[in-house]
Structure formats: structure tokens, C-alpha cells
Amino acid sequence: MYYIFDSVLDMLGTLVDTPVMEVSDLRMRYGDREVLSGVEFSAAPGEVVVLLGPNGAGKTTTIEILEGFRMRSGGDVRVLGVDPADGGEAWRARLGVVLQSWRDHSKWRVRELLAHLGAYYAAFSTPDKRRPWVIDELLEVVGLTAAAGSVIGRLSGGQRRRLDVAIGIVGRPDLLFLDEPTVGFDPEARRDFHDLIHRMTDLDSTTVLLTTHDLDEAEKLADRILILAKGRIVASGSADELSRQVAGEAEVRWTQDGRRFVHSDVDATKFVRELFQQHGAAVGDLEVRRASLEETYMKLVREAEGS
Ligand SMILES: Nc1ncnc2c1ncn2[C@@H]1O[C@H](COP(=O)(O)OP(=O)(O)OP(=O)(O)O)[C@@H](O)[C@H]1O
């Protein structure tokens, strides 16, 4: 309910389902090398989109173009309704960017730096979205309350990454870009970070675009996964949809009378129902397995690279 109410306020005067990002035929060349050759996708408010792809596929390049940090070679891009090449200060204030480790200001204290950076966003506060984030609350959600008074130069690697995230979201962005955000996180920090993303999308209807090489993370976070390979989006869908797209058949394994059986079927549920009808209690150790995201990803990337 809160989500709908918030979205309606956010979108006042515009269409509620206006995409937050619209990318069409995006092209990028470095010299004579084409890295992106017709990337297409869009994202809706509150959606978490995870961009996967092999090293060098162009994920960072894509994000930098959307952030307005890099000029594209061709194609149409709209972010929050604006071409990033023309994005002004008010547009930029609605974006959150988590950079790879904040190295400057090492003599500043954590709370001091967040309050300093947060102050910039106050001018872009709206009745439905108060900016910046209340600093104590922000420290709490990123797990830095105990380190609030610490000098940045003395933070651990994990604490520094938490600070990077805090800096990225201090302005309560409508759209958050995260390029490999959890590299260097321990399992607890990673779980806290995943909770934070869910909290931001549920309560604030923040849209998130993130890159990762961690397929488990992609599966946990993504409403939609995009696979970028050979300069294009070669697949788009939830982890489940991608797995069905790649492997139409599921593998059913069971034991019967001390023997192991394996059967592949497009309708595994029907097969299992019939198996029990025929053999009942004699069936044991039943397992039904679809392709994992890793298998799906590898197959889609290999197919794209072979084409
Ligand atoms: N400023 C640049 N000048 C020339 N080539 C570049 C530049 N930036 C990136 N590239 C090249 O463009 C390609 C895409 O790079 P990009 O960093 O966008 O890929 P990526 O998918 O983010 O990779 P990774 O998973 O390794 O982070 C790579 O081959 C890279 O070497």
C-alpha cells in the first residue's frame, strides 16, 4: 500500500508506469572497438535489475553512460525521463552512485562526512521524499553506528565498503547504481546489504541497477536479470524464467528397490505424479532439479560468444 501511495506521489503529473530507465540501441565504441552494439532494456519503478556478463562485456561502460559519466557513441537513453548527456543538478540529485571505495577525506570522521555530503541534497528534498537521509538512521541501516565517530582512514575494508554504500544512498535516490557493490564484504555484511536493498525498494520504491559476478547474489536480489554478452542483452528474465528458457526439461532423480533412476521431462510435475501412482511408497530420495543460474548463465554466454 505504502509502495503504491509513494509511487503515485512520485509520479504526480506523469504516467505511473513511466520506465525509470529506457535504453534503446545503445552503442559504444572505444577507438575502433565496438563494446556495446545495440543494448536494449528498460526498468520500472522499484525494480531491482541485475546486469551480468563476462569480464569486459561492457557492464561498467553501460552504467557509466546511464549515470551521465560517459558519452555514448549512439542510441537512445532516458534515465528518469532525461537523456543522461543533458542531466542537470536536480536530475543528478535523484541518482545514487556507489563508487569503488571512497579514498579521499581519510581524516574526516564517518558521521561528519555523511552529514557534509548529505547537506547537498537538502535543496532537492520533496514533500514525499525528505532528503538527505537522517544521518543516525542511515548509520544504523548500513551498520556503521558504532563507527560513527571513527576517522575514515582507520576503517576496515568492510567498513569502508559500508561507507561507500552510505555515501551512495545518503540523498535517498530514486535510482541507485551499484557496480560490484559487495566485493570485499564478509557474509554478514553481504546479508545486511541485501536486506538494505530490499528495504529501499520496498519502502522507498527505489529502482536499482547493479552488476555482480556473484550469481547467488543475483538470484537473491534480482527482479530481473539481464545478461550482457557480445555487446548485447542476450537474455532477460527472473532466474527461474532464464532457467526454463535454457533448459526446457527438468531432471527427476529417485531411488526404487535400491536402484537409482534419472529421467528428464518438460513436465516434471506430471511425471512425478504418475511415478507415485505407479510405484507409490517404493519411490525414495526424490529430487527435481532445474538448471542452476550458473549453468543457465554459462550456456547463454557460450551461445552468444559462439554466434
Ligand atoms: N576508457 C576506455 N578506453 C578504452 N577501452 C576501454 C575503456 N574503458 C573500458 N574499455 C574496454 O571496454 C571493454 C568493456 O569494459 P567494461 O569495464 O565496461 O566491462 P565490464 O563488463 O564492466 O568488465 P568487468 O566484469 O571486468 O568489470 C573492455 O574491453 C575494456 O578494456
TrEMBL record:
This is ABC-2 type transport system ATP-binding protein. It is found in: Cell membrane. Its main location: membrane. CDD domains: ABC_DR_subfamily_A. GO terms for biological process: response to antibiotic. InterPro entries: AAA+_ATPase, ABC_transporter-like_ATP-bd, ABC_transporter-like_CS, ABC_transporter_ATP-binding, P-loop_NTPase. It comes from the Bacteria. It is a peripheral membrane protein. Residues 21-255 form the ABC transporter domain. The keyword Mitochondrion does not apply. GO terms for molecular function: ATP binding; ATP hydrolysis activity. One of its GO terms (cellular component) is plasma membrane. Gene3D superfamilies: P-loop containing nucleotide triphosphate hydrolases. SUPFAM superfamilies: P-loop containing nucleoside triphosphate hydrolases. Keywords: Antibiotic resistance, ATP-binding, Nucleotide-binding, Transport.
